[in-house]
Each structure stands twice: as C-alpha cells, then as structure tokens.
Amino acid sequence: MRILLDKFTKKFSDLTVIDEMDLEVRDGEMIALLGGSGCGKSTTLFSICGIHKVNGGRILFGDKDVTNVTSQERNVGVVFQSFALYPHLTVENNIGFPLKLRKESKAEIKRKVDEIAEMVHIEPLLQRRPGELSGGQQQRVALARALIRRPDVLLLDEPLANLDATLRLEMRSEIRRIQQETGITAVLVTHDQVEAMSMCDRIAIMDAGKIIQIAKPRDMYENPVSDYVAGFLGSPPIAFLTGQVQDGNFVEPSTGTKMPLSAEIAASQSGRQVKVGIRPEYFQPDGATKIAGTVSFMESQGRETLYNVTLPDGSILRSIQGVHDPVHIGDRVEWGVDSAEMMVFDMNGLRL
Fold first, then answer.
1. Band of the pLDDT at 301, cuts 50, 70, 90?
2. Nearest Cα residue to 49 out of 208, 192, 155, 166
3. CA angle 278, 286, 308 (to 5 degrees)
C-alpha cells in the first residue's frame, strides 16, 4: 500500500510544526523518519495513523484519500515504544484483541493468533501475562497484535527504545524479517541512525518540520546534502574542520596542512572559508595527507579502537582502527587524511 503525503501541514494552536511536506512511501517499502527531538517525525507518524488531525494537504493510502478518515477506519497497525499491552490479559488475548473488536469467531481468532505467534516466535508464551515477559518478548507481542489485523500500513514509533543493546540488535533483524515476509508498507520513527540504516529501504532525515534529504542508507551516508545530514549518519560521527581554500587546497589553519580539493571546488571557492568533513575510516596512520595532533581519547571496542586526535586549535579528528602498534592518550601522532574522500561544505552547511 503506497502512502502519499501531499502538502501535509500540521499545527498546534498557532505553531506550525509541519509545513506543506511532500513524502511518498512506496508499496512494500520500509522507510525511516530520522531526526532529533522536536523535528516533527512523531507528529508525522501520528498524522498518518489518524491520531492527529491534519490542518492542510492530503494523506493518501493507495488512491484513497484518508485525510478525514478516523484512525479506526484506516486499517493501520501501530507499535509504540511503551508496548501498551493489557496487563490483565494473556499474551493470546492481547494479540487477539483487535479481532475480538471486529467480532470474529473464537475459532478464527485462535487460528490467526497461532499463525502470527509462530511468525514472531512467541508460541510458548501465549498463556503468560505481560508482566511475566522480558522486554523483547513484550515487543514481539506488541508487533504481533499490530500485524494480526492484516493492516495496510505498519507504523513503528521508536519501537526499540526501551530494550537493551542485545535485544535491540535482535529485534532490528526480526522486525525487518517480518516486514519483508509480509510485504507490508512500514514507517519507522527513530532518532537512532543505526536502526534507520540497518532496517529500512530509505531514510528521510527531518529537521524543524522539513525533510532535508531522502535516500537509500548507503547513498545518504556517501552523499549527504548538508553537514547536518553528514553529522547524523555514522558512528563514530564525522569530524569537521574549518579553513580556507588556497591554490587548489583546503588549508587547515592551526597546522597549515594542505589537503587537495577537486578542481571544480578549488576554482569556485578560491579564497573562501569552507568546512570539510572527514569520516573516521578516512583518517588513518597510512593516510596520504599527514596532519599532526595529540591523542585525547581512546575507546577499545574489541576488534576496533576509536581515537580522538586534538589539533592545536582544539579541533578534533576521529579515527577508527583495527589492531596496530599501541598508542596512548597524550601521544603525539601524525596520521593521514584520504583527501579524495573529504566532504566539502560551504559555511551555510550545504555540500559543494
């Protein structure tokens, strides 16, 4: 089921939160609305499901205009971060509750509950109550309850926020598996870029009620339209340096290091201040363009170690490396930047 937001506008009193947003979610696609707190992503989700009334524009499911259709009539499944299970009901009755409201027969409800329980791997838990389940199990029950009604659209509002790191990893793959198996169109709201990149076909990054960029995860990582987008994707995050373009190079002011730029950028930005973004994988001991600094932070992650290298003016470059000769906090290092992989932005943050 395709979802189309056409000039979608949402206000709270006199405050316009979303202003004429256009967004198409393709049939069978899973898309992430990614952004910081207050960017409008949850407001968009709640408007799609009918919890919020739209103040302008249209929302279409397929060719049907559902802008003024109640949430109960939209046939959407919603999974919240709080799980929102009925504590006095068994797992079986929690999952089957939407079908009970539809007045389906007990035999039909039982058949569908068993079927969906097998899909989300909770068959042995059907006679337990939510208080007897782990967080991951409760989330599977909430997912099963959302899916049992065979919704046209699945909406996920920070569904993994209350789970520990191991369960988040497990549930990321499980939700994606189920979404692909069912072929349901899904919208995920999250502030976690790892969730967005690992679970979704495309990502829409939002800021101040607007979609800044929408693209496939890898495309967005490699080709962000702004420093805001570049900074949102990547762990550890990209580092930025500010300097001037001179004689075809970006000149880092505190060390005087010259980093070659493309001929096009060098010509158009000659003499101007720009900002360059350098991802940790492109700042390495064997990098071509050497820049000296002091190791100010280290974090071992087993197979890899993260480093912050502080330059004389306080700017920081980040590096992620495998096993190599020991380096300690306070050591002076001269590692290299792969200047071919630098991202260059103007001082308004737009990619050049």
1. confident
2. 155
3. 45
Residue 352 lies in a domain: no
Question: What local confidence, expressed as pLDDT, does residue 83 receive?
Answer: 78
8 A C-beta contact, residue 289 and residue 255: no
Of 232, 255, 270, the position where a domain reaches its end is 232
Spatial CB neighbours of 25, under 8 Å, sequence gap ≥ 6: 2, 3, 4, 31, 185, 187
Provide the residue range defining the domain that includes 286. 239-345
Band the pLDDT of 34: cuts 50, 70, 90: very high
d(CA 316, CA 309): 6
Q: Are residues 223 and 248 in the same domain?
A: no
| Helix H or strand E segment including 114 | helix 106-119
Same domain, 278 and 195: no
The SS3 call for residue 157 is: strand
